[in-house]
Amino acid sequence: MWPACSNSPNTLLQRLRLSGEIPASRIQGFTLIELMFVVVIVGILMAVALPSYQKYIAKSRRSDAISALSAIAQAQERMRSNRSSYLSVLDDLKLGLNNSLSPGGHYTLSLSGVGDPPSYNFGYIATAQASSGSPQAKDSDCAQMSIEMSGGNLKYKAQDSAGNDSKSKCWPS
């Protein structure tokens, strides 16, 4: 043990160096250059990884639209079994949607009729549009997802932010 005196070494490193177990030439730290290299490497990794992570998160949020549109389709079929036409108002489906928002709040939902003029007798179109206040609004690949029931056939549709067809990117196959 080291004697307790005012000039005794107070750190383990100082004690080892004074005892000769670690030569003074081996005691080193990181230089500023080495530290800057680490900062640059971490910055490059973040620049590469962050966009991929954001795309992954946007893709996972699409399940919010898919589940909401599936719930609308199921409710419409339940209601259609007792009526001669599909319902035209989301609230009438009794899905508990808050202001026509999807359960996660990432999409605004709407209903419209099919045909010209639009009618709910033979089908409907349920649309999920990425909400402007949601982080999902930055998902340019799937800005709008929809299902169209027409004549007993269900079609899946999607558009990117430019209005191009993006069904293969948005709906699982």
Look at the helices and sheets and give the structural class: alpha+beta
Number of helices: 3
Instruction: Give the SSE order as H and E letters.
Output: HHEEEEH
Cα shape: elongated
Strand count: 4
Q: What fraction, in percent, of the residue positions are helical? A: 25-40%
How is the main sheet built?
4 strands, antiparallel
Q: Which percent range describes the beta-strand content?
A: 15-25%
Distance between the termini: 72 Å
Mean pLDDT: 85
The radius of gyration computed from the alpha-carbon positions, rounded to a whole number of angstroms, is: 31 Å
Strand order of the largest sheet: 1-2-3-4
Contiguous uncertain segments of 5+ residues: none
Label this structure with key terms.
173 residues, alpha+beta, 4-stranded antiparallel beta sheet, 3 helices, elongated
Topology of this structure?
Blueprint: H1 12-19, H2 32-80, E1 107-114, E2 119-130, E3 144-150, E4 153-159, H3 167-170
Antiparallel strand pairs: 1-2, 2-3, 3-4
Question: Can you walk through the features of this model?
Answer:
It contains three helices and four strands. The protein has 173 residues and is α+β, with helices and mostly antiparallel strands. The protein has a domain of 109 residues. The protein has a four-stranded antiparallel β-sheet with strand order 1-2-3-4. The protein is elongated, with a radius of gyration of 31 Å. The mean pLDDT is 85.
